[in-house]
Amino acid sequence: MNKETSPTLPAAMAQERGNVVRLAIAQALAGANATIVFATGSIVGNTLAPDKALATLPITVFVVGMAASTLPTGAVAHRYGRRAAFLLGTGCGILAGLLGALAVLLASFWIFCGATFFAGVYAAVVLTFRFAAADCVPPERRARAISTVMAGGVFAGVIGPQLVTYTMDIWPPFLFAATYLAQAGVAVLCAFILLKVRLPVPKPSETGRGRPMAEIIRQPRFISAVIAGVVSYTIMNLIMTSAPLAMRLCGISQENANLGLQWHVIAMYGPSFVTGRVISRFGAPRVVAAGLILLALAAVVGISGISVGHFWFSLILLGLGWNFGFVGASAMVVECHRPEERTQVQSLNDFLIFGLMVVGSLASGGLLNTYGWEIVCWVSFPPLLVALATLWIVRSRPVPAVS
Fold it and tell me: What InterPro entries does its record include (predicted)?
């Protein structure tokens, strides 16, 4: 943004800050959607599923919704602007809450899966808030803008679990029915916040095709960023999806499971207050490597025991590792595209991440029910080693001059 596209520099900077703050608030509200699904999805699934091996299928469907929606919402953002995509996503969030409540009332497993699909669409759109923040600031402030918006997730880490705790028993005997209605209400509030976001509609010069996608995805830094993002999110999802049900099977109360998930989500987003500055100082690849190591430590703690403390500490390390890995990988992605390529490249990145997450999410239920919690943790190590290896390969390569 410069003097040619805004009346004054102070006004332009005020608009930048306003957009980033609103997106951070929206992240706090909308992030409760995913937290509620992860806190309740496997438990409701275990209650309603015709086969206990399908207990985590609703969460897998949630991830499918994320993957299936990234390219279409990217096309909407490219053609009509990001705000149109945001409002489409919040509409899906409202629908998800209403369908979730209906599924519990009717004891319908398949309606519940439909609810989590729309919740996944909503979650995918929410994750583009970070890229929207990067779009509205100069290149030197992009990492900080991304981390500021992601920091809004700290409040999501409180809002989501507390909504579950205080609403799950309001409508007996329909456990969690009121929770999903509350989630729909939070999505409505988020829509009002997003109406105030003033992101520019794409200019004609920014709606061109840019470079061929094959040329972009052949960049070693882009390949490394995608692999790091995929592994960070997949491992986090694999362990987090199984953890609430594993705690329940180990005799741990739902309240303690909710608190464990709350601290996990706070750990996911809390570091975002400083992650941008850390990336600016040490570089995104080093931050991503630290995140991958923390994810490995989370698996080690999970293998070490099944007490409340073990589960909580593992989930906290899992959240910290995800933050460094995912935010760092996102910062690497925005270094690999030109302005006219951003929505296509960013949506492709998220499509690859969420598409491959489906495998981990689908596997988690079968692994947990068939082999137990320890094996869920053990399978994390090979992909983490692969991601670290790709970072090592590109460590000395210069950042592409495309911004």
Answer: MFS, MFS_dom, MFS_trans_sf
- Count up the domains in the chain and report the number: 1
Contact (Cβ atoms closer than 8 angstroms) between residue 123 and residue 33: yes
State yes or no: pLDDT of 6 exceeds 60.
Answer: no
Q: What is the DSSP string of 217-246?
A: HT-HHHHHHHHHHHHHHHHHHHHHHHHHHH
* pLDDT beyond 90 at 321: yes
Would residue 204 count as lying in a domain? Answer: no
Residue numbers of the domain that contains 243 = 9-197+214-394
| E strand map for 128-169 | none
Residues 67 and 61: their CA atoms lie apart, in Å, by 10
The candidate with the shortest Cα–Cα distance to 43, out of 159, 180, 158, 157, is 180
Residue 303 lies in a domain: yes
* pLDDT confidence tier of residue 1, bands split at 50, 70 and 90: very low
Does 368 map to a domain?
A: yes
Angle between helices 272-282 and 308-333 (to 10 degrees): 50
pLDDT exceeds cutoff 90 at 7: no
pTM: 0.71
